[in-house]
């Protein structure tokens, strides 16, 4: 996101009453000009005719807010200064609250910073959901109810990978609480409201619509955010996002801002389906376990799709759908049910898999020991398998003297190949059981260069044919070229397997950092 920053929407300050004045901005809404009266010609069957009425009133949220607001809380955390400094960017670009003098390095300190966020009660006995970054490193946490009552809170558990935390407050009274809804039912264009504690102004209500679903903003391995245009600002972190039925469908967690400042109408909420799974585990055990499949998957480029013989997308120009299995971990659940390299996973437990990230999110959300149905393509034919999901935490992460006497030039691809000598294995950190040929050189501007092949890559297979010598690799390349298909290479790079498709006539898609090894095991 060039020129933009994703900001965790919380607030922190040196003293409790830090704001003495608030400037409000007004938005001027003007009527749109009438449509141009010039007639437009179109085929009758291409005209979109919405079924909704042409005039519709904006919803009134008064009754809804009265019902849900008592369950929304403000959270104040006293956080160690060193935890803030080592947060790894989680502060979202916020300025340090007490700048050190010019040319003076910060010294180790036991000082604490007051951080403010939001949360909501999910049970009458005092369980509160919020963001992990609101309470991470906190030495003391307090929760302020809607009626002004302040209660000490205990951190039951935190999950950094989804940025969720569960707190517990204790009181003799039963507390008002709200229920989690079904985020999978939320649709773009639907009205939603956010309630929270922006800039310390507890009980603030804003409204907008769902802008999109399934957003990956590179904040974590399981990003699957709901994007909303309801104004969300610092201090809204951990607050609920409601639909009109009063159910929570998301937890507000981040905003996109060019300057790292306030809301510009692009906010992100963690879906309630994710929240439900994480909170249940935190409540029972204080930590989260995630499902494990044991495949290393990558994005499918159009060239790869042709090389694999996959059916063309229904919509011309649309990206290929599915997650290409680059490798399968030995002894993993995937290996036990027969999944293989070159399989394309298209759905998981009845839900479509558009890319490796989809697969990672769906696998991780399942509890170890449960069964899931996987739909995949092998050689263009649809197949299914039922797999017992493993436990990611306990899964293993198994994730040269001589001369290059047998160097062969890959026909028209622009690569020089050499055998895996003992010296080469030592240089690349490869074990003796790795088979293949090493790319010793790539011609600038060649088809291989355009496709993203690098010197040091180990080509282990051309198509479905394993290769262990440059001569065998060249022969397999010639066969693929004779069939007038892109050449599909299975490559080992940095001990990660991936596929790269090379089209000799150009139009190659070099794998991005997201393409090579988006592993559902992380």
From TrEMBL:
Keyword tags: Hydrolase, Periplasm, Protease, Repeat, Serine protease, Signal, Stress response
Any idea which residues are catalytic in this one?
A: 133, 163, 237
Annotated region (Disordered) at 502-522
Primary location class: periplasm
> Which residues belong to any copy of the PDZ domain?
308-355, 417-495
Q: Which GO terms describe its cellular component?
A: periplasmic space
Q: What is this protein called?
A: Probable periplasmic serine endoprotease DegP-like
Q: Which organism is it from?
A: Acetobacter oryzoeni
């Amino acid at each position: 996101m060039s020129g933009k920053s994703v900001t965790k929407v919380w607030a922190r300050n040196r003293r409790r009453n830090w704001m003495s004045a608030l400037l409000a901005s007004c938005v001027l809404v003007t009527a749109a000009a009438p449509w141009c009266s010039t007639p437009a010609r179109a085929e009758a069957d291409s005209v979109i005719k919405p079924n909704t009425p042409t005039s519709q009133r904006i919803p009134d949220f008064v009754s809804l807010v009265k019902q849900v607001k008592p369950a929304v809380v403000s959270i104040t955390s006293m956080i160690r200064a060193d935890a803030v400094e080592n947060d790894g960017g989680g502060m979202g670009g916020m300025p340090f609250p007490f700048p050190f003098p010019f040319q003076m390095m910060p010294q180790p300190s036991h000082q604490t910073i007051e951080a403010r966020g939001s949360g909501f009660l999910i049970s009458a006995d005092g369980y509160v959901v919020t963001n992990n970054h609101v309470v991470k490193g906190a030495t003391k946490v307090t929760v302020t109810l809607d009626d002004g009552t302040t209660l000490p809170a205990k951190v039951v558990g935190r999950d950094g990978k989804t940025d969720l935390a569960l707190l517990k407050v204790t009181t003799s009274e039963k507390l008002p609480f709200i229920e989690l809804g079904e985020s999978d039912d939320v649709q773009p264009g639907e009205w939603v409201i956010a309630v929270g504690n922006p800039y310390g102004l507890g009980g603030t209500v804003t409204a907008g619509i769902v802008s999109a679903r399934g957003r990956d903003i590179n904040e974590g391995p399981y990003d699957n955010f709901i994007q909303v245009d309801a104004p969300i600002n610092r201090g809204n972190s951990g607050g609920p996002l409601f639909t009109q039925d009063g159910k929570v469908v998301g937890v507000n967690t981040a905003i996109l801002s060019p300057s790292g400042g306030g809301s510009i109408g692009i906010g992100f909420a963690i879906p309630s389906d994710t929240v439900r799974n994480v909170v249940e585990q935190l409540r029972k055990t204080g930590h989260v376990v995630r499902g494990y499949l044991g495949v290393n998957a990558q994005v499918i480029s159009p060239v790869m799709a042709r090389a694999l013989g996959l059916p063309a997308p229904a919509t011309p120009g649309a990206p290929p759908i599915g997650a290409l299995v680059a490798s399968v971990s030995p002894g993993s659940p995937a290996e036990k049910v027969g999944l293989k390299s070159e399989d394309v996973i298209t759905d998981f437990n009845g839900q479509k898999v558009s890319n490796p990230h989809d697969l990672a999110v769906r696998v991780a959300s399942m509890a170890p020991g449960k069964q899931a149905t996987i739909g995949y393509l092998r050689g263009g034919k649809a197949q299914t398998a039922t797999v017992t999901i493993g436990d990611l935490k306990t899964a293993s992460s198994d994730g040269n003297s001589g001369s290059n006497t047998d160097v062969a030039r890959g026909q028209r691809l622009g690569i020089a190949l050499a055998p895996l000598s003992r010296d080469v294995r030592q240089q690349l950190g490869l074990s003796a059981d790795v088979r293949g040929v090493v790319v010793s050189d790539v011609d600038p501007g060649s088809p291989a260069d355009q496709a993203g092949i690098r010197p040091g890559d180990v080509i282990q297979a051309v198509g479905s044919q394993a290769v262990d010598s440059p001569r065998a690799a060249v022969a397999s390349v010639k066969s693929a070229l004779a069939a007038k298909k892109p050449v599909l290479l299975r490559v080992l790079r940095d001990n990660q397997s991936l596929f790269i498709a090379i089209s000799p006539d150009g139009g190659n898609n070099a794998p991005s950092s997201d393409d090579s090894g988006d592993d559902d095991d992380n």
